[in-house]
Amino acid sequence: MPERPTHTSPVVYRSEVRIERVKGPVRRAYLPAESQPVVFGVHGAVAHHYKVAPGAVEPRATTLDYVVAAAAG
Description:
Layout: E1 18-23, E2 26-30, E3 38-40, H1 44-49, H2 63-72
Antiparallel strand pairs: 1-2, 2-3
């Protein structure tokens, strides 16, 4: 079997993100180029799936919501 080349491209960008747990499923993400943190949480069916009681936390967009929005853009 032929050998595979071992050459890889240099890293062009490495994201430096800090995540801070706030309460339960709520997280604050400090992202590059953003002056304020982005707050992630749960809502609707996701909150129900993770057994977060209604009214326990303010409904927030999930990390999945952001991934879908980024991929769709």
